Amino acid sequence: MSKSTDERGRIYLPKDVRERFGDQYRIVELPSHVALFPVDEDPLEGLRAAVGDAFAETDAGELKTQAREAISREVRTEAESRTQDSEE
Prior knowledge:
mainly alpha; 11% strand; single chain; 50% helix
């Protein structure tokens, strides 16, 4: 399917595409092209649908806490690694 932008840079998606994938999309810029990925109205439900029962008993707050803790660990590990590299 090929679409052009209008004078304001908008792209209009056909009705059948909107009905199939929804009205919200994430625009991802890649080195050779741009891609549109549908965004679920309820992203947590979309995640649960994608991974099955893996998060069935986990609420959104707990998932956020776990994600923040994992990121903090990664940042600390990276910082420690850089400190060790600079001391050598």
